[in-house]
């Protein structure tokens, strides 16, 4: 079990480093999506947060639950905006759900992401169809069930998240700064859904 | 981008260092986490007032730290709300046994970060209450939106609650007063040009030379409609109509009329807007008993204006007139 925890921590660190790099690379794309319907800082905020996360990975904790908690606290303290508390809550609640879980198998990932997504919905007082990151995360969590293979489960989740992000394009925002635009928010992908889909695609890539 | 900066990522830090050097008698600045507090904080026997939000709205909020206004301000990155650890540290630095009031503009990020900070403060035994400011009539309120934005009304709430806190008001009465100010204040703005956030280096939106963005937010987020440029009188009329219709203001109501510049509009133009707004308010039968004209809640170098109308009670008027000594607002002290 000790060895499995170490494997899981190594896997998570690998994922988070890839995620940090992917966000840095797509920083301007995410900010451009945000500029269309918000204020254009989503890429910069996420890049600042994940740079801080990557710093912390130099000396990672010994178990997955503590690592998720560390990532959550780091994002809350560095991202700002709405994304800080929302992504922070996602990781904190995944960390709570990971406590006492011996190994991150497909069932564990389903439980973890479901708990994290429920936390995000509660923190943001949002639901599916509001044109937020939840429109990528909710289908991703659902797609994690029904297979024993972590690799397959994470690939399905990434695929569901990407489709979920695409589906936000025609939506009219009901939460966040984009909601101030009303009908004018339609026709643009939600930047939070885009960054969530990116995180999940990096997770699938790490497992592949 | 053409700005007087050294490096985009140093903008907030260096601006805070400049404020600290300019006003050592009024305030103290802490870096990492960033916050600005009154030089004499914590003031014994006083309920603390804490506000904050993204940088780029100067003088809001750091410029309102001092006697008779805020005890602490937490500046986030440009147009990005401060983080909970920052808000908690600022609250701790200024709060005594009487607790603290958080004055929060209604933007999803600000609301969530202040909410988490208040939860953490309460866990530490610090009494904290929060009041949301949501005075922008440009946003249609409904069950399905995040609600109205907090704009110019915030300046008035900070001054009035600051006066009351200085006079010894306790936390429950400050909460009541702040809610009362918010319930009686309405604002609306229009932008003539976009602004450029230093980190992105590009204008926040595109606007043709003959267009204005009507119902603009203070973060460069587009407004509700894009319309052809009109005269100052006509723009003032278009901004005043939804404000007057919303409360609604009644004949003979004593009001405070606040014409605000968004950062790139000179005072000469704001006075022209004030002239029109004053005439419209007077024609509506309102008694304009106090005025404020100037750039107090800005969006970097965005050109444009917002108009705020507050229906005053005697209490509000007394606390508005009370002395204040801050970098951006000072009278009677």
Distance between the termini of chain B: 40 Å
β-strand percent of chain B reads 15-25%
Main β sheet profile of chain A:
none
Shape, principal axes of CA atoms of chain A:
globular
Which H/E pattern describes the elements of chain A? HHHHHHHHH
The span between the termini of chain A is 23 Å
Keywords (chain B): Kinase, Transferase
Protein name (chain B): Dihydroxyacetone kinase subunit DhaK
Domain DhaK (chain B): 7-331
EC number (chain B): 2.7.1.121
What this model shows, in words?
Chain A: Its EC number is 2.7.1.121. Chain A: This is Dihydroxyacetone kinase subunit DhaL. Chain A: Keywords: Kinase, Transferase. The complex is a heterodimer of chains A (about 210) and B (about 325). Chain A has helices at about 1-25, 25-35, 40-55, 65-80, 85-100, 105-125, 135-145, 150-165, 190-205. The mean pLDDT of chain A is about 95. Chain A is built from nine helices and no strands. Chain A is an all-alpha fold. Helix content of chain A is about 70%, strand content about 0%. By secondary structure, chain B is α/β, with parallel strands linked by helices. In chain B, about 30% of the residues lie in helices and about 25% in strands. Chain B has a six-stranded mixed sheet, with helices on both faces. In chain B, a hairpin with a 4-residue loop joins strand 1 (about 25-30) and strand 2 (about 35-40). The model of chain B has no long low-confidence stretch (mean pLDDT about 95). Chains A and B meet through helix 2, helix 3, helix 4 and helix 5 of A and strand 4, helix 2 and helix 3 of B.
Structure summarized in a few sentences:
The complex is a heterodimer of chains A (208) and B (333). Chain A is mainly alpha-helical.
């Amino acid at each position: 079990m000790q060895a499995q925890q170490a494997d899981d921590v190594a896997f998570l660190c690998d994922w988070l480093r890839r995620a940090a790099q992917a966000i840095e690379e797509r920083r301007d794309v995410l900010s451009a999506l945000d500029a269309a319907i918000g204020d254009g800082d989503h890429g910069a905020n996420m890049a600042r947060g994940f740079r801080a996360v990557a710093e912390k990975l130099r000396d990672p904790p010994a178990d997955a639950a503590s690592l998720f908690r560390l990532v959550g606290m780091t994002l809350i303290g560095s991202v700002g905006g709405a994304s800080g508390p929302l992504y922070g809550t996602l990781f904190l609640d995944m960390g709570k759900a990971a406590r006492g879980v011996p190994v991150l198998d497909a069932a564990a990932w389903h439980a973890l992401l479901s708990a994290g997504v429920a936390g995000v919905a509660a923190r943001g007082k949002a639901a599916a169809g509001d044109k937020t990151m939840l429109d990528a995360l909710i289908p991703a969590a659902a797609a994690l069930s029904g297979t024993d293979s972590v690799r397959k489960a994470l690939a399905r989740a990434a695929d569901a998240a990407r489709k979920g992000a695409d589906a936000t394009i025609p939506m009219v925002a009901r939460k966040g700064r984009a909601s101030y635009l009303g009908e004018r928010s339609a026709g643009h992908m939600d930047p939070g859904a885009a960054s969530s889909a990116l995180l999940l695609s990096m997770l699938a890539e790490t497992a592949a | 981008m053409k700005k007087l900066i050294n490096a985009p990522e140093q903008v907030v830090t260096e601006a805070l260092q400049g404020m600290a050097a300019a006003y050592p008698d009024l305030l103290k600045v802490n870096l990492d986490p960033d916050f600005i507090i009154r030089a004499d904080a914590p003031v014994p026997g006083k309920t603390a007032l804490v506000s904050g939000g993204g940088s780029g709205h100067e003088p809001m909020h750091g410029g309102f730290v001092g006697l008779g206004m805020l005890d602490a301000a937490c500046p986030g990155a440009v147009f990005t709300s401060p983080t909970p650890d920052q808000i908690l540290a600022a609250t701790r630095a200024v709060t005594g046994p009487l607790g603290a009031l958080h004055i929060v503009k209604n933007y999803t990020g600000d609301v969530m970060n202040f909410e988490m900070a208040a939860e953490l403060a309460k866990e530490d035994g610090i009494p904290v209450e929060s009041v949301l400011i949501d005075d922008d009539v440009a946003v249609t309120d409904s069950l399905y939106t995040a609600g109205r934005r907090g704009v110019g009304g915030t300046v008035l709430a900070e001054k009035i609650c600051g006066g009351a806190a200085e006079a010894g008001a306790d936390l429950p009465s400050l909460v009541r007063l702040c809610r009362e100010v918010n319930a009686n204040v309405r604002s609306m703005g229009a932008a003539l040009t976009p602004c450029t956030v230093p980190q992105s280096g590009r204008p926040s939106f595109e606007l043709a030379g003959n267009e204005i963005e009507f119902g603009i937010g203070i973060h460069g987020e587009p407004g509700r409609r894009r319309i052809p440029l009109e005269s100052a009188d006509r723009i003032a009329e278009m901004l005043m109509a939804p404000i007057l219709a919303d409360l609604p203001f009644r004949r003979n109501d004593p009001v405070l009329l606040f014409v605000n510049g968004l950062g790139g509009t000179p005072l000469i133009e704001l006075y022209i807007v004030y002239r029109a707004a004053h005439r419209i308010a007077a024609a509506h039968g309102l008694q304009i008993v106090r005025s404020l004209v100037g750039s107090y809640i800005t969006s970097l170098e965005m050109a444009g204006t917002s108009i705020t109308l507050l229906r005053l009670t005697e209490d509000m008027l007394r606390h508005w007139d009370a002395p204040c000594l801050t970098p951006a607002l000072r009278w009677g002290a």
